[in-house]
Specification:
Rossmann fold
């Protein structure tokens, strides 16, 4: 197999095209069709084995130009290729007396099918259209996820997230405005705070992050404001506080709602005049630092319970930014999952892995109580101990991720079943699949007994097993293949 990189420019939107066939015109048509489009092409005289293609060249094609081979195994190999690369768009060159029919390669989706003889200009036109279409799609995704460099880890295009990022961009330009970031644990409050600092005029100064709930109150004052020698037993020398060390930059107080009232008063004074005094010290120190704070608490409720100062809220929330939980933006889950899998797998394994469509469907149905942080942790776990294949499937995922399925219970009285739905709902196809799998498990794969258990005809059950791709599961449990229904049946 030979490789040719014809990148007309240095854009990252490079179309990866596999060209399979012995026709000497293939490279010429590709060059002309993709003229002006950044692409990388791999040429092979025959359709390569998908696993070997990925293993040997780390090449996952976006587009494939395939010349039909005169081999009875070709349709099966083509199906295997499409199954391995489901997002790849296919352009097929059929022969004059071709045995390759849509029925023969079902369910392979083909973008365009050429039968010889064909005008090369038409093939070149379709190649160019496919390449430009892919690049438009990527630019659209990139437009949704791209932001200023500091915001690159905040991925998604849900309206609430976009609103939060736009507000953060605007406030980043102001070097002094205090910012209060609200959101559940794991939504990315720390990442947003760092992005605001990175994109602000203070980005050459330090960024100091403090977890206000990680230290006892009697030590937090010394941590923030510093102390002088002899202030307490272990104070053997003067020590500057974190606020002082943040001079010229930004300080981020995470979980600010955990601060006690006495320390809140000191923070309020610092925000008013920019001055601090070390514990047991007499010298006043002027500090120029922007304060960014975050909390997952309802500070108004904390004020009502007399655990937080109302005047401090007014100083902290000059600008308030709310980050939505992941369960409120399920359409962003595939984007996030792909983003973090590519990043983590490249760092840990040295090359990028991919999610299968069924794995992404499971991730999208899950409720994510730990939000983006939980998704990142799961992704890292999958990279480390998941499938050794290039793709992570639903079978590789922890079983608890499927706990958001509807729960169906039969009451002892024999009345109608009781169904409990998860907060985000559930796809009926998944419920049907779960019921069929449970019936097959109860009957050890005996289709007749499973049909009786489900009070349906054996033929109806066979139809549903085939529709949901469970036929092979049944055959493995029974020890012999389940006969395939004929089209005439």
């Amino acid at each position: 197999m030979s490789t040719e990189s014809l990148t007309k420019d240095k854009r990252p939107l490079e179309v990866r095209i596999l060209v399979s066939g012995r026709d000497p015109g293939l490279p010429v048509w590709v060059r002309k069709g993709l003229d002006g489009i950044a692409y990388r092409a791999e040429f092979s005289e025959s359709l390569p084995d998908p696993s070997r293609l990925s293993a040997e060249s780390d090449f996952r094609p976006d587009l494939a130009l395939i010349d039909e081979e005169n081999s009875p195994e070709f349709p099966a190999r083509l199906r295997a290729f499409k199954e391995a690369f489901p997002q790849c768009q296919l352009l097929l060159l059929g022969r004059e007396e071709s045995s390759l029919t849509p029925r023969a390669i079902r369910p392979v989706a083909v973008r365009h099918w050429f039968y010889r003889p064909f005008p090369p200009q038409e093939l070149e036109r379709i190649l160019g259209a496919a390449g430009r279409s892919l690049q438009r799609q990527w630019r659209e995704e990139h437009r949704h996820t791209r932001s200023l460099s500091g915001f690159e880890g905040l991925v998604g295009h849900h309206p609430k997230l976009i609103e939060a990022l736009e507000m953060a961009r605007r406030v980043a330009a102001s070097p002094r405005t205090t910012v209060l970031i609200l959101g559940e644990t794991g939504t990315g409050k720390g990442l947003l705070a760092k992005a605001i600092h990175t994109e602000s005029p203070r980005n050459t100064g330090p960024f100091i992050e403090v977890n206000c709930g990680a230290m006892p109150p009697n030590l937090m004052e010394s941590e923030l404001f510093g102390h002088v020698k002899g202030a307490f037993t272990s104070a053997v020398s003067d020590k500057p506080g974190l606020l002082e060390l943040a001079d010229g930059g930004s300080v981020f107080l995470d979980e600010v709602g955990e601060l006690d009232l006495a320390l809140q008063a000191k923070i309020l004074k610092f925000l008013d005049d920019g001055q601090i005094r070390r514990v047991q010290g007499t010298e006043t120190i002027q500090v120029d630092a922007r304060m960014i704070t975050a909390t997952n608490r309802n500070l108004e409720s904390e004020v009502a319970e007399k655990r937080f100062r109302l005047d401090l809220i007014h100083r902290l929330n000059v600008v308030t930014i709310s980050l939505p939980p992941l369960r409120e933006r399920p359409e962003d889950i595939p984007l996030l999952a792909r983003h973090y899998l590519a990043e983590l797998s490249a760092r840990i394994r040295g090359h990028a892995l991919e999610w299968t469509d069924d794995a992404l469907a499971v991730l999208q149905r899950y409720d994510w109580p730990g939000n983006v942080r939980e998704l990142i942790n799961l992704t890292e776990r999958m990279v480390l101990i998941g499938s050794q294949d290039e793709r992570i499937s639903a079978q590789d995922l922890p079983v608890e991720l499927s706990a958001t399925k509807a729960v169906v219970a039969m009451p002892p009285s024999g009345g109608p079943p009781v169904v409990e739905f998860p907060p985000g709902g559930v796809a009926f196809r998944d419920v049907e699949r779960a019921v069929l799998e449970a019936a097959l498990g109860r009957t050890h794969g005996n289709v007749t007994e499973a049909a009786r258990l489900l009070r349906m005809s054996r033929g109806s059950l066979r139809y549903r097993l085939e529709k949901l791709g469970l036929r092979e599961k049944a055959s493995r449990r029974r020890g012999r293949p389940m006969k395939r229904r004929s089209r005439a049946a």
